[in-house]
Design a protein that fits this description.
754 residues, 8-stranded mixed beta sheet, 32 strands, 16% helix, 21% strand, elongated, binds zinc ion
C-alpha cells in the first residue's frame, strides 16, 4: 500500500538501523564540577564496548575504553605543551561522549541515560507522522532530506560511527553512502567515497550559510540523555565543515555542525552533569597549510594536525603510532563559534498551521493532507481524520472549515461542452497486442469493454456516464455534494506499525460498509444503514451496473460491501490488486469528483516469471504480454502432464534457462516493457467493473486522481471466508433501493438490447 512518497532526493547519511542485541552499559560517565577535575580518580567507570558494535569495522568487541585519567595521559603524551585546562576539557568531552548502545527492544524506561534538562519543541511517535508533518524532513528512508542542491534536515538514529560527536552545541558525523557489507554483515568501505548529491548540498549550505534541522531517533548511541520519543527535533544548526577522513584506508566525508541560538541551553543536555563549555570559549583552532595540496585545514584531533581537505591525497594521514579509533577531538576545533552574516532560519521549527486563507479548497489541498505540530504538546499529528487533526496525546484539535466544493472546480471544462443528450467521449487507451476492445451504448453510458488476452471470461468494463446520468436525482452530482456535507467516517487507517519506526498510513482516506474488507487496509466497519443513504444509493447503482455487465449465465450475487475512498488533492492509490480467493469475481467502482487515471499492468512476478525476492519461477501459467512469453508458455505446456512435485523440479531451473526474474531482464527495453497495458480516464459519474478473479491474480492497478475525488467500490464477500469474530453483528441487509438506470431516457440509437 502506498505511503506518502519522498518528494526530494534522499541519499543515505547514516545507517538508521539499530543493533538487535541489548547490552546497554549502566555506568555512565559522570563529570564532576570542573574545580575537582584535576584530582579526579575514575578507575571504575570504564565502559565496555557492547558486542553489538562488531557490526562496524575496526571496533573489536570487549575492547575496554580508557578511563578519564588515561585519556588525560594520552593527550599529554601526544602534546606535552598543551595547556592543562585544554587537556581536561578535551578529556571531559571525550569521556562524556561515549556510546550508549540500546536495542530496539529497550523501552524508554530501561534506557540508562539521565533525563534531558528540557523537552523537544517538536517530536513524533512514527517516521510517517514526522515526515508527513515537517517540511524540512520528508525523507521516509534515508537520514538526509535534500533535493541534491539544498539540504533541509538530517536524522540520526541507532549507533554512531567512531569519532562521531553528539554534544549540546556541536555535532560531528559522517556522510552516508558507499557502504558495502561483507558476508558477516560488517559494513566496510571498499573504495573512496565520492561526492554524492547530499554531500554537495551540505557544502553549499556551508558556503551559503543555510541552517539545517537535526532530528534524533530514540536510539542515537552518542546522545547522552534519554530520548523519550521515537523521534525528537533537536533544532536548527549551522553546517560549518565538510572534511575528509579515512576508514580502512578509504576516503570518507564528515560534517561538523553547530547549534544556533545558544543563549538557551540545549534541551537534550543531560541532567546531573556540568554543562559543556560554550561555543567560542576555547582558543582559536590551530590552522596549518598542507604541503601536498597547499590548502589550509584546521587541526581536528589533539594528537596532531592532519590535512582534512576533501580533495587532498594526504588527508587524514594519522600521526605515527596513533590508532584512528583513539583520536580525541580538539576542543579548539569542536567548540569554535562560527560567525555568520545572519542568525535567522528559513522556516519556523514549528511549522505554521494550514489556514483557510481565501481559497475555498484550502481544506482539501496537499497542505491539508499533511500533518500539523500539536500546539498542546509538540507532537507531529498526521492527518488521519477527514474532518481535521486530533492529537492522540493531549486531545488538542484543529481543522480548516470545509466549504462544499462545486463540481465545476474539480472538473475539466470539456465536461460542460457535452450536449445534454449525447454520449460522452472515451479518453482511454490500451495496448492492442494484449487487450482487445469492444464498444457498445447502453442506456446513457458509452461502454468500453476490454478483454485481456489469455484471461478468458475476464474483462474490464468502463461505463462512461453522460450528463443525464450525472444530474439524475440521488445521482453522482448529488452524491458528490452529500459526501462533502456528511462525514461518513472517512479516515486514514494504519497500514503497519513497526517497532523501529512506528505506524505508517496510506495516502488516502477510507471507510468500509457492510461486510468487512480485509484487503489492502483493515478498516473499521459500519453496517448499511439509513444514516448513510448515499452509501446505499451507490451500492444499488453499482449492483444494477454489474447486472448489466456480467453475462447472465454466470449469475451475479448482489454486492454486500462498499469501500468508500476519499482523495484530497495530490493523494493517490499506488499499484495494488484487490485480492482474489474469497472475493466474488466482480468489483465495481463509481467515481465522483475530479477525473482520475486508472492504469492496469501485469504484476511484476508474472511479468518477469519469478518471485521478486527469491527469484523462483512463479507457479502460474504465463500469459500473453509477459516477458519471453512464447518460450515460457511452451515450457509450461510441456510439464503439465507431470505431477506437482516433478513440475516443481523442472521449474527450478527455469530462472536460468528461460531468463526469468527481474535481474535477468537487464536491458532497458525489457524493463520498459513492464508498463501499463490499459489506461482509463475515469470521470465524474463513471463506473468501472472488473470481472474475473484472474485479473486480480495476474494484474495490478493504480489510481491517480487529478484533484479532489471520491471512489465508491462494491464487492461481494463470501461470509464463509471471514473469521466469525469479524463478521458484522447483524447480517448484511439486502439492497432495498433497487436502482434501475433503464428508467432514464437514453439518447436515440442506444443499444439497450442487453
Ligand atoms: Zn592537503
Ligand atoms: Zn498534543
Amino acid at each position: 500500500m502506498p505511503t506518502d512518497g519522498n518528494q526530494a532526493y534522499a541519499g543515505e547519511v547514516q545507517p538508521t538501523g539499530v543493533p538487535t542485541k541489548s547490552s546497554a552499559p549502566t555506568d555512565l560517565p559522570y563529570l564532576p564540577p570542573s574545580s575537582s577535575r584535576k584530582s579526579l580518580k575514575r578507575k571504575g567507570t570504564s565502559l565496555v564496548k557492547p558486542s553489538a558494535k562488531k557490526r562496524f569495522t575496526g571496533r573489536p568487541s570487549g575492547h575496554v575504553l580508557p578511563s578519564f585519567d588515561e585519556v588525560v595521559q594520552a593527550i599529554q603524551d601526544a602534546d606535552p605543551g598543551l595547556d592543562v585546562g585544554l587537556v581536561h576539557t578535551a578529556a571531559s568531552l571525550h569521556v562524556g561522549n561515549r556510546d550508549i548502545v540500546l536495542s530496539k527492544d529497550t523501552s524508554p524506561e530501561d534506557d540508562p541515560r539521565p533525563e534531558p534538562i528540557g523537552h523537544p519543541a517538536v517530536w513524533a511517535t512514527s517516521r510517517c507522522h514526522l515526515c508527513s508533518t515537517l517540511p524540512y524532513f520528508q525523507s521516509y528512508k534515508s537520514g538526509i532530506y535534500s533535493n541534491g542542491t539544498a539540504v533541509y534536515g538530517f536524522m540520526f538514529d541507532g549507533e554512531n560511527m567512531p569519532r562521531d560527536y553528539v554534544g549540546a552545541d556541536a555535532l560531528i558525523f559522517r556522510a552516508g553512502g558507499g557502504w558495502t557489507e561483507d558476508e558477516n554483515g560488517v559494513r566496510t568501505r571498499n573504495e573512496d567515497q565520492t561526492l554524492n548529491p547530499g554531500i554537495i548540498a551540505v557544502q553549499l549550505a556551508v558556503q551559503e550559510q543555510t541552517p539545517i534541522v537535526i532530528i534524533s531517533g530514540r536510539l542515537t548511541s552518542k546522545m547522552q540523555s534519554k530520548m523519550k520519543y521515537l523521534y525528537s527535533v533537536l533544532g536548527w544548526f549551522k553546517p560549518t565543515h565538510v572534511f575528509a577522513e579515512k576508514a580502512n584506508g578509504k576516503k570518507v566525508f564528515r560534517y561538523r555542525l553547530e547549534r544556533m541560538f545558544t543563549e538557551e541551553q540545549s534541551w537534550w543536555a543531560p541532567t546531573g552533569r556540568d554543562p559543556e563549555p560554550p561555543l567560542g570559549s576555547q582558543p582559536a583552532p590551530i590552522e596549518k597549510t598542507c604541503a601536498v595540496c597547499e590548502k589550509v585545514s584546521q587541526q581536528i584531533y589533539v594528537q596532531g594536525w592532519m590535512c582534512s581537505n576533501i580533495d587532498c591525497t594526504s588527508a587524514f594521514d594519522v600521526p605515527a603510532g596513533q590508532n584512528p579509533d583513539d583520536l580525541i577531538l580538539d576542543p579548539r576545533f569542536l567548540l569554535q563559534k562560527t560567525e555568520w552574516l545572519h542568525s535567522t532560519t528559513p522556516e519556523p521549527l514549528v511549522p505554521n498551521l494550514p489556514s483557510a486563507g481565501s481559497k475555498s479548497v484550502a481544506h482539501i489541498t496537499r497542505n491539508a493532507s499533511r500533518g500539523v505540530v500539536c500546539r498542546g504538546c509538540g507532537c507531529c499529528i498526521p492527518r488521519k481524520l477527514w474532518k481535521g487533526w486530533e492529537c492522540s496525546h493531549c486531545g488538542w484539535e484543529y481543522s480548516i472549515p470545509p466549504q462544499v466544493i462545486p463540481l465545476g472546480d474539480v472538473q475539466d471544462d470539456n465536461q460542460f461542452h457535452e450536449d445534454d443528450g449525447g454520449y460522452a467521449r472515451s479518453y482511454s487507451k490500451c495496448t492492442d497486442s494484449v487487450i482487445s476492445r469492444e464498444f457498445s451504448l447502453q442506456y446513457n453510458y458509452r461502454v468500453a469493454t476490454y478483454h485481456i488476452n489469455g484471461l478468458s471470461g475476464c474483462f474490464v468494463s468502463h461505463l462512461i456516464a453522460n450528463r443525464k446520468v450525472r444530474e439524475e436525482p440521488n445521482g453522482p452530482n448529488d452524491m458528490f455534494a452529500q459526501l462533502q456535507e456528511q462525514d461518513i467516517g472517512l479516515r486514514r487507517h494504519t497500514i503497519s506499525d513497526k517497532k523501529g519506526e512506528g505506524e505508517s498510513l496510506p495516502n488516502h482516506f477510507s471507510a468500509n460498509f457492510g461486510m468487512p474488507y480485509k484487503y489492502v487496509i483493515a478498516t473499521k466497519n459500519e453496517p448499511f444503514s439509513d444514516d448513510y443513504g448515499i452509501i446505499n444509493q451507490a451500492r444499488s447503482r453499482l449492483t444494477w451496473a454489474a447486472h448489466q455487465a456480467v453475462p447472465k449465465n454466470e449469475g451475479f450475487t448482489e454486492f454486500n460491501e462498499i469501500l468508500a475512498c476519499g482523495y484530497f488533492e495530490t493523494q493517490k492509490m499506488k499499484y495494488h490488486s484487490d485480492g482474489e480467493d474469497d472475493l466474488g469475481p466482480t468489483v465495481a467502482t463509481l467515481s465522483l469528483g475530479a477525473p482520475a487515471t486508472m492504469k492496469f499492468r501485469m504484476k511484476s512476478n508474472h511479468f518477469y516469471g519469478a518471485t521478486k525476492a527469491a527469484e523462483k519461477a512463479v507457479q502460474s501459467e504465463p500469459k500473453p504480454g509477459c516477458l519471453n512469453y512464447e518460450a515460457r508458455k511452451q515450457a509450461w505446456d510441456e510439464i503439465q502432464h507431470l505431477s506437482k512435485k516433478n513440475q516443481g523440479e523442472q521449474m527450478s531451473s527455469w530462472t536460468k534457462t528461460l531468463g526469468l526474474g527481474k535481474s535477468q531482464a537487464k536491458s532497458t527495453a525489457k524493463r520498459e516493457s513492464h508498463s501499463a497495458v490499459l489506461q482509463l480516464t475515469l470521470r465524474h459519474g463513471d463506473i468501472v467493473i472488473m470481472h474475473g478473479g484472474a485479473i486480480q491474480h495476474y494484474y495490478e492497478h493504480e489510481v491517480v486522481p487529478d484533484g479532489f475525488r471520491f471512489a465508491l467500490t462494491a464487492r461481494t464477500i463470501d461470509p464463509k471466508t471471514i473469521n466469525s469474530g469479524d463478521l458484522p453483528v447483524e447480517s448484511v441487509k439486502p439492497d432495498h433501493i433497487k436502482y434501475d438506470g433503464s428508467y432514464l431516457l437514453a439518447p436515440p440509437g442506444g443499444d439497450i438490447s442487453t
